[in-house]
Amino acid sequence: MGITSAALSAFRVLIVASFKYLELGSSATAFSIAQTALISAITGNDLARAAATASAVTTTYTGDTLRLTKTWTAGGSETVREVGIFNASSDGTMGARRVLDSAYALVEDDEFTYQFDIIFAYKT
User: 40 FRET partner, CA 20 to 30 A, in 3, 17, 49, 76?
Assistant: First the structure.
C-alpha cells in the first residue's frame, strides 16, 4: 500500500483544522502516549496557551509538513521545558507533546518562539 503525496498534504490540512493551539509547560517528565495534557502547563505571565500560525512546509514531498509557530513575550519569570499542541483554546485534548532538550529560563520581556513541526510521511 502507498499513500500519495496529495493525501499527505490533505492530512496536514485536516490536522490544522483541529489542533492549532500551542501551550508551554515546565516539566521535563518523559513523553507517554497516554498523556492528554502537559504535565505542568504554564498559565500565567503572558505565556498561556494560544493560537499558533499554521503553515505548510516541504520536508520530502510538497506540503507534507505542518508547522505551527507562536511567539510569546514573558510577563514574568518562568522556565519552559515542554510544548504541546491542542485542539481548543482551553481544556481540549493534547495531540502531541515535546520535552525540550534544554530548559529555557525566561524573565519579563523575553520573547520565546516555538516552531512545532509534524511531518506526514509514509513507509513503503
Answer: 17
124 within domain boundaries: no
CA distance 3 to 1: 7
Nearest to residue 90, comparing CAs of 124, 53, 48? 48
Q: Which residue has the cell 532538550?
A: 101
Strand 111-119 to strand 94-106: parallel, antiparallel, or no bridges (unpaired)?
Answer: unpaired
Spatial distance between the Cα atoms of 52 and 66, rounded to a whole number of angstroms: 11
The answer as to whether 97 is a domain residue is yes
The whole-angstrom separation of Cα 80 and Cα 41 is 9
- Residue 124's pLDDT is 60
Pick 96 or 122 by higher pLDDT.
96
Give the three-class secondary structure for 18.
helix
- Distance (Å, whole) CA 20 – CA 118: 12
For the chain, what is the domain count? 1
